[in-house]
Amino acid sequence: MLLSSVLLASMLQNPLCDVCWLRDDSRKNTTVLAYLKNENKTSEHYLKPLMGTQKKLLDEWEAMAGNKAEKPWLDINGYHYKTLNKGVRGVVVRKNQQREDVVINMNLRAENHAYYRLGNWSVSPNNRLVAIAENIVGDDNYIISVIDIASGETLTQFLGEYADTLVWKSDKEVIVVENETNTYRPYKAVLRNIKTNTSVTLYQETNPAWLVSAYMASDAKSILIQSNNHNTSVQYLLRSEEKSGIDPKAALRLVKPRKSSVEYYVDVLDGKYYIKSNQGGRFAIYTAQDVQREWTPIIQPNGEITRWHLANRRIVIEEKKQGITLLEGFDLQGKKVFSNNLSKAASVGWMARNTNPASQTINVRTMGLSQPPAWTKLNIETGETVSSDADVYNQFSTNNYVSELISVKHQGVEVPVSLVYRKDMLTDDSPVFLYGYGAYGVTMRPYFMPQIISLVDRGAVYAIAHVRGGGFKGDDWYQAGKGVNRLNSIQDFIAAAQVMKQFRIESPSEKKVDRDILALGSSAGGTLVAAAINQRPELFKGAALQVPFVDVLSSMSDESIPLTRQQYAEWGNPNKPEERNVMRVYSPFDNISAKNYPALLVRSGLFDSRVPYWEAAKYTARIKALSTANNPYLLVTDLQSGHSTDRTKALRQQAMDYAFLLNLTNLNK
C-alpha cells in the first residue's frame, strides 16, 4: 500500500512523467522489484478465488488431448529427425533404420533453470555434432553450444547469439550470427571453427536498421549470408565445399547490390539458381545459370507468394489471394501442373517440414477453429493426396460446432473475422472473446486449440479480427495498417467489436442483442486492443493483455531500447513530425484519461528485451490512477521469463486469463 501511495503522489506532482521511475534497465533496482512483487501479490489475492476455474480449464484441456497424428520426420543428411513431446519440454530424436537415439533432451538441459527455451538446433553434415541455441534468461541473447551427440560432451559455447541462424559449413565449421551489445540486433555473421576454437567474421552490417541472417540452400552446398531491413535485402553466396585454406570471407560473392524496396531470396539446386524477388514490382520466381547475371521470370502469380519449396522436378508455392491460400505446383520451366485451395471457412493450411528436395511428396499442415490439425502428404507431380492423418481429440465432435468467416464492412473495406460457436449453446447474451493482432504483415491463423473449445463449450463465441496491418489479405492489407496507417487497424478492431456485440445467427424477433466483448491481445496485439479500449472503453467488458507494446511513443523515441531503429518502418519514426503525430494519437499509454476503463489483466516478463516489462507496469499504474470505474486492473510480472515462457507455464497463464475474463460474464462455471 505504501508503494501505491508513493506512486499516486508521483503522478500528481509530475503528470508528464508520472511513472518513469518504474523503468530499470538493470532489472535489479530494489524499489522497482518491490513494486512489481507487491503488484503480483495484489493480483494473486484477486485471482485466488478463480483458481478453481483455472484448474477446471487445465483439466479439460488435458482430458481432451487424444491421439496426435504422427509428425513427419525431417530428412537431414540421410537421417530422420523429430521433436517428441516426452516429459515437460520434450526431446529431439533421430532414426536410422529401426533405431531411435535421443539427440537433445530438453528436460535434462532445463534442470536447475527457472527459465529455459530451446530456440534452434542444427546437425553437422556427418551427423556427429549438433549445435543448439538455448536461453535461460528470457531475453534475445542465446547461448549456442556444440555437442558431441554420441558422448553428450559440450565441445564449445558462444554467448550473445541470434537463435535463428545455425548453418554448418563443414563438419568442423558452423556459421552463427552475433547480437549487437545492448540492442540485441543480429548484425554480424561469424564462421566458428570447432576444432581450432577460432572464428572469422564473414559479414558485418553497420546500418542499425538492418538485420543479418544466413541459411543453407536446397542443394546443401550453397550458403546465403543475408542482410535486410523491412523492404530491401542483399545476399552473399558462399559455397560450403570451398577448399580449406581459402579465406572464406574472400570467397563470398555478392549476388546483387542492395536497391531500395527490392528484395531477393536465392535458392540453389542441381547447379541452377532460383530466386524469389520483387525486382519487377511484384514477387515472382526467377531462374538463372549465373546468379550474378540476368534472371529470367518463370512463375508470376496473380497473388502473393507466402512460401515456396524447391524440389528436383517441381516448384511448389503458397499463393495468397484476398485471404484465400492456394497451393500450386509448377514444373521447372514454370508451367502450372496443379492447384489446391487450402482455405475453407475459418480454417487454414500451409506447407511444413519439407526438407528433402528429392522426395516425391510434400507435407501440408491443415486445421481450423473447429477442425483438428492434420498432416497431409501430396504427390508433388500431381498435387493429389497420398495420405492424411488428423489428430483425434476426446469428447470432441466437429459436428457440434459452427465455424465461419464473416466480413465486417467498415471505412469502405471488408474486415474478415473468423469465428466459432456452438449453435446449441448460443444465446442472445453469449459473450464474445475477440482476439486481435494486426502488425508486421502477420496473419493470425484460425488454429484449432482445446483452449478455444473450452470457451465455446461454455456458450461463448470465439472470434479473430483480421485487421489491416496483418497479412490476411496480403501485402496491400498490411501496408494499409502499418506506420502512419496504424489508426486503420485500431478502427477495424473497434468495428469488429461493434458487429460482434450484436452478432446473431438468425433474427426471429426484434429483441436487441448486446453481448459482452472480452478482448485478447499479445505483444503488438496489446497495442491494438489497448488503443481500441482507449477510444471506446464502453465496448469492452474486459481484456487480457500479454507482454503488450503499449508505450509506443516513448519506446520508439528511445534508440537505447533493443531493435527500436529496426521498427521505424512498422510503427513510425518519431523524428518525422507526421509519423510522430500519428503515434501520439494512438499510443495506448499516452492516451489514458479519466474514463470508465474495463477490467484488465496485464502480463509481462521481467527480462523481456522486445517489450520491456516497464511498459505494462507504467500502463497499468496509470489506468489505476485515472480510471473512473471500480474495476480490477491487475499487473502480473513474471520475474523469471521474457517475451515468452515454457509451454506448461504458458498454459497455466492462459487458463487464468480465461478464468479472469469468464468471471466478468454469465459463464463463470
Number of domains: 3
The CATH topology of the largest domain is given as: Rossmann fold
**Largest sheet composition:** 8 strands, mixed
Strands, total number = 35
Strand content: 25-35%
Count every helix, treating DSSP H or I runs of 4 or more residues as helices. Answer: 14
Helix content: 10-25%
Radius of gyration from CA coordinates? 25 Å
CATH class of the largest domain: Alpha Beta
Q: Compute the separation of the termini in Å.
A: 32 Å
Uncertain ranges: 1-15
The CATH architecture of the largest domain comes to 3-Layer(aba) Sandwich
Summarize the structure.
With 669 residues, this protein is α+β, with helices and mostly antiparallel strands.
Topology (elements, then pairings):
Layout: H1 2-13, H2 30-47, H3 51-64, E1 74-76, E2 79-84, E3 91-96, E4 99-105, H4 106-109, E5 117-123, E6 129-135, E7 142-148, E8 154-170, E9 173-179, E10 186-193, E11 198-204, E12 211-216, E13 222-228, E14 233-239, H5 248-251, E15 253-254, E16 264-269, E17 272-277, E18 284-288, E19 296-299, E20 304-310, E21 315-321, E22 324-330, E23 336-341, E24 347-351, E25 361-368, E26 371-379, E27 385-390, E28 402-410, E29 413-421, E30 432-436, H6 450-457, E31 461-465, H7 475-479, H8 486-501, E32 517-522, H9 524-535, E33 542-546, H10 552-556, H11 568-571, H12 577-586, E34 599-605, H13 613-626, E35 633-638, H14 647-662
Parallel strand pairs: 30-31, 30-32, 32-33, 33-34, 34-35
Antiparallel strand pairs: 1-2, 2-3, 3-4, 5-6, 6-7, 7-8, 8-9, 9-10, 10-11, 12-13, 13-14, 14-15, 16-17, 17-18, 18-19, 20-21, 21-22, 22-23, 24-25, 25-26, 26-27, 28-29, 29-31
Helix pairs in contact: 3-14, 8-9
